[in-house]
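Form 12-C: Joint structure prediction
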Amino acid sequence: MSQTNYPEVNADRLWQRHMDMAAIGGTEGGGVHRLALTPEDIEAHVLLAQWAEARGFSVALDPMGNMFIRREGSDPSLAPISSGSHTDTQPYGGRFDGITGVLTAFEALETIDEAGIETRYPLEVAIWNNEEGARFTPACMGSAAYVGFKPLDDLLSRTDPEQVSMRDCVADLAKALPQADKRELGAPIAFFIESHIEQGVRLEESGNIIGAVTGMQGYRRFEIEVIGEDAHSGTTPRSRRKDAFVAATDMTHALREVLWDDDDEMRYTIGRFEVLPGGVSVVPGQVNFYIDLRYHDKAALDRLAIEIPKICEAHSGPCEVRIVDAPTVDPMTFPEDIVTGIEAAAERHGFGHERMYSYAGHDARHIARISPAGMLFIPCWKGISHNEAERAEPEHVAAAAQVISDILIDRAKS
Ligand SMILES: [Zn+2]
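Section 2 - Result
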């Protein structure tokens, strides 16, 4: 195909849309505070719907509060070719995480529409509800519910710290968009691609502007309780102590030795460590801590998932150790033809590109359970994300939209 078959996206329009969105929940520090389905996030959905309707695109909502913007194809019976991400942010987050994936997808649909290109498949922009998991847990709730990975009723019953339920928030969203069609959860998707800022420094360091994402890390988490015995810190000799802090720190040191890899690919983190009862003159009788272990190799993760409890046991001394919970997500790989499709589109437009792995989780992970799916990254300044200082360059955002537009055309035409 020649270049003329791939119309050029409108970089100025796309940037302006980013700035319009950044104003909704915009902070004094130049970031965005727009937690899932707050009035601000609902306003962002409404603005997107207005832009969609101005183009003649339709809008639909599913029971989990995911929103879909659709440009009909010549065969409406076909499942859509889709792209998108999320509108919600972390508390005092940035102007690009999530929304770039939504706006590049929307720009692609506008570009294709303006060029008068007829597609056989419908084209859609997907806005997945509550990706960040900041107001309601878990993260990636919308895409997880859509593909049936987690039950709808359970997720709708989740509440925020003010005891407002997700169910009520989804009802508020539906009320704000009375014109929206209804979409079933799990309705087939023929293809999905998500663009996102990298949230790391690999692209910035290489000077490339498109990262063709090959796969996503999996994780194993362990919620661990170490049970000892509260005792007087002055009168209790070592021989009689059951010090949960000593046992827990022995475990974490031993784990650090085992989980140390020279190529720095395995990510071992203890982000929470509670010492109880917390009296300065009490030998602690209990410690709760959480291990977050991320890696790309499922076999290695499976092996470590068996080893970690044994290591904890071996270093528990006079204390008892209990694994309270151990959630698991396997690493995943995106289909090779989608990765090469991203590379080909980047090549066509002269965008430097490289393959890379995703160290963060994204909605595309869930959508890949029901549809061929892929992801691309663009650089983000100093890798700073989940921060008001988050920044992406206009030409990089436009490059993402261009690659998405090309790929949607290729996938939707025949
Ligand atoms: Zn995101």
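Section 3 - Comments
The chain has two domains: 3-216+331-413, 218-329. DSSP finds twelve helices and 17 strands in the chain.
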